[in-house]
Write a structure and sequence with these properties.
Keywords: Hydrolase. The chain is of the alpha/beta class. It has helices at about 35-45, 60-70, 90-105, 135, 175-185, 215-225, 245-255, 315-325; strands at about 5-10, 15-20, 25-30, 50, 50-55, 75, 80, 110, 120, 125-130, 160-165, 165-170, 195-200, 230, 260, 300-305, 310-315. An 8-stranded mixed sheet has the order 8-7-5-3-2-1-16-17.
């Protein structure tokens, strides 16, 4: 049995960040808010990062990059961004920090993460499936030839991790229905399947039918990806995510799929486990997680381990279900539709 890679989907609260380790290579995919990413890297003994891939300009995906680049603890070799025209103080701060970092280190900056880019060494590949040419060329607020309004979410970079030619995980950031339609129109449908899906937009509505949970979007992405595990990278108390109707429809479409969150949604338990309870609130893996100190974790930071024979998703499903039964017996992922 040969280890190929480890993908950690970090609990950063409301936001996205993931770290892929493959041999000596380290890739960061989005950076969340605050310093959770930095704490995770330090705890894992990682100080060299081959590349940082930023899916789009939303602060809950990019803000942590500012501290990462400003720190002289980490040797970051390259940063690939997916810029946006909308005004944002965080994006302006990141642009300034990118210049300071580049002037100091000479690191590579690529100003358009786009469809067709492939990164990786050996049997592990990082495939960028979106945005395609049309979305890359259009700014947020513009309309495409079909009259669809483009948002920053439409232009999200969609990334699939493969190991030994097996599709491991799909990370679609905040991809909305317009972006998904462009993906299929660009001939990428057969490249979307993966064992693990980090669900878009933290489990929020992602389409034009927002008030109804955007059923066509949910069915489309679940059918295209056909995941056995769906992870929601959410923050407890942030926007009440994942939405109950989103979880319910995924369970209806893919009843055998495992569903789990990084943090314990208020929709699953109005009260977090009591701090004095020594069993109910412990996170399930010894990994840095934003919610661990306040017992906000559900799955906490998730770890996907790939070797040449199988793909394992942690935390262990039985242990995770035990935690849910103890702390959130009416959790969204357990309710009968």
């Amino acid at each position: 049995m040969t280890s190929l890679c480890t993908l950690d989907v970090l609990d950063v609260g409301h936001g996205n960040a993931a770290v892929l380790q493959a041999g000596d290579s380290v890739t960061v995919i989005d950076a969340g808010l605050g310093v959770t990413l930095i704490k995770f890297l330090e705890a894992e003994g990682i100080n060299r990062i081959d590349r940082v891939l930023l899916s789009h300009s939303d602060r809950d995906h990019v803000a942590g990059t500012i501290n990462l680049l400003a720190s002289e603890t980490f040797d970051v070799r390259a940063v690939y961004v997916n810029p946006d025209s909308k005004p944002s103080s965080i994006w302006a701060s990141l642009a300034w920090e990118l210049k300071q970092w580049h002037d100091r280190t000479g690191g590579l900056i690529e100003l358009q993460l786009r469809q067709g880019m492939v990164f990786g060494e050996g049997p592990v590949r990082i495939n960028v499936l979106a945005p395609g040419i049309q979305l890359s060329a259009l700014a947020a607020g513009a309309k495409d030839k079909a009259g669809r309004t483009i948002t920053a979410n439409s232009r999200s970079a969609v990334i699939r991790i493969d190991a030994a030619d097996k599709p491991v995980a799909l990370l679609p950031a905040d991809l909305d229905d317009v972006g998904l339609e462009h993906l299929t129109e660009d001939g990428q449908s057969d490249k979307l399947n993966a064992q693990v899906l980090v669900y878009p937009h933290h489990g929020g509505a992602s389409g034009r039918g927002r008030g109804e949970g955007s059923s066509p979007y949910i069915r489309s992405i679940i059918d295209l990806v056909s995941p056995s595990t769906v992870i929601f990278s959410n923050g407890r108390g942030s926007y009440d995510l994942p939405r109950a109707e989103v979880v319910a429809q995924i369970r209806e479409i893919a009843p055998s799929a495992r569903l789990g969150c990084t943090q314990l949604s208020r929709g699953c338990a109005t009260e977090a486990p009591a701090l004095e309870d020594e069993t109910a609130g412990q996170h399930l893996l010894p990994l840095v997680a934003h919610g661990s100190s306040a017992r906000k974790c559900c799955g906490g930071t998730w770890r996907i381990v790939c070797d040449d024979t199988r793909i394992s998703v942690l935390p262990d499903e039985a242990a995770h279900k035990g935690y849910i039964a103890a702390c959130a017996p009416t959790a969204l992922c357990q309710r009968q539709n």
